[in-house]
Amino acid sequence: MAQExxxxxxxxxxxxxxDYDEIVKYSSDVxxxxxxxxIQELTMKLAITTDHEPSQTCSNYDxxxxxxxLHADFTSFYRRLIEYEIIKDPDPQGTVANQIxxxxxxxxxxxxxxxxxxxxxxRPYIVHGRDVGSNVVDxxxxxxILLHMFLKNLKYKAKAKExxxxxxxxxxxxxxxxxxxxxxxxxxxxxxxxxYGSLEKRRDWLAPFYRNNFYFLFELMHEDKNxxxxxxxxxxxxxxxxxxxxxxxxLQGIWLNKTRHVGNFQEYMSPNFRDFWNFYVFDDNASAxxxxxxxxxxxxxxxxxxxxxxxxxxxxxxxxxxxxxxxxGDPKERENDDGxxxxxxxxxxxxxxxxxxxxxxxxxxxxPKIVMIDTAMSSCFWDKAAYDRSVEILxxxxxxxxxxxxxxxYFDNYETLFYVKEKGNLxxxxxxxxxxxxxxxxxAAAEDEAPAKKNKAEEEAQAKAQAKENAQQTAKETAQQKxxxxxxxxxxxxxxxxxxxxxxxxxxxxxxxxxKTKKHKQQxxxxxxxxxxxxxxxx
Length: 539
What we know:
By secondary structure, this protein is α/β, with parallel strands linked by helices. The protein has helices at 2-14, 20-23, 32-43, 74-83, 96-102, 143-159, 171-174, 183-187, 190-196, 199-206, 245-259, 271-280, 434-487, 493-500, 503-506, 509-533; strands at residues 55-57, 63-67, 87-88, 104-105, 110-114, 122-123, 126-127, 130-131, 134-135, 164-168, 214-215, 218-221, 227-232, 316-319, 333-335, 341-343, 358-362, 368-372, 392-397, 413-420, 425-430. The strands form six sheets. It has a seven-stranded mixed sheet. The chain has a six-stranded mixed sheet with strand order 1-12-13-14-18-17, with no helix packed on it. Strands 3-4 form a two-stranded antiparallel sheet.
């Protein structure tokens, strides 16, 4: 049995798009021309599709994992998947090539959704007018290509376990195809810029992956096509109170139709298509890839229920794009990239007071209708001292016994996972509204107080019973005292003396008293008879 299991594992490890030998084909010690040709040949395999659509049926899966904004950090992403028990590394001391080729996908009937921004492993930070940006750990500059190869293998192995991996495209990913890519010098790792050599070469090497493996919007729906969950990078509503869903679907259709038939991406830069991109993709007031509207929502913002947004009535929307910092205890505001203030979130989480997952717009069943999941997973956001920090991931699950209807969602449990390094295990926290948390706290307090109340009631009952018993005892003693007092009165003195006297101690006195009393009664009777016999003239 063990041998058979080992063979199955070996077969699964071999069922990959990129094996070990392919991954090590390009290395930093080969000359530029050889490296270019090998990588070009290798990355063309990224375009191979695995036949998935931008919407799937909820009942295909029991569990959904969602995370966002990897930002070229393969090492951090790989580590998180191990911590969350989504994959297993058979050789923890192995090379990166071993990791990409030989990992094992663990869960069945599980879908992993990544909400965009796969590339760009640098963050610009301006200090005293100088950019002192932070980079991911990438000694060679090839982390982006490694990450895309890993995502391809990840999806392939997930499919073998009735599972899937879906990637949403983010604003950083979209700029890969824009000629005037302002992100290239500011947001691309310095070593990666040297590795690629040029913006155009980077686009040519990574573009094949985006033909059939990325979506602008991904949806999970019921059998009746009723949508339950939507995944998008930024938002599906704009600041101008406009829904971005139709435009996003339209853009997705154009993208899929073109990328499946176009060999290179220069056509996208034609004047007509470029205007389309400028409006639907790069306009932050009209694009689902740039909009940050939800960061400005309070947990139960009035816009959750208004007639314009209708968020509570619609599907749950899962978004990345916006770093979600925790509430620090004071009413506080912070400026976003547009200089507009947004309110800091109020949920407490376990990520060392760093970025957390935040739910908003809860419906009457306490299901969140917006969940923000950008937890700054990439190390480019943090000092290297914080590189090993744990981060939260969203897990949505289905209760097997629950019936799904139009009013009852298929996925009924929203929670976060957090890896506790000190304990070496995962801790879960159910996502709840502040109102529900308050109710639960009150219920827990009442439950804690229940034994005390029960004991108090029992003590009161015992006290009442004791008081009743004491009252009865007092009444009995009172009756006895009254009887004693009555027996002690003059009319009964002689009788009391007689009854209490001890013949041995009184020396016969009681007999004299009894004789005297009898003689007194006889004299009294004699006088009475004498009066009745006297003549009337003596009266």
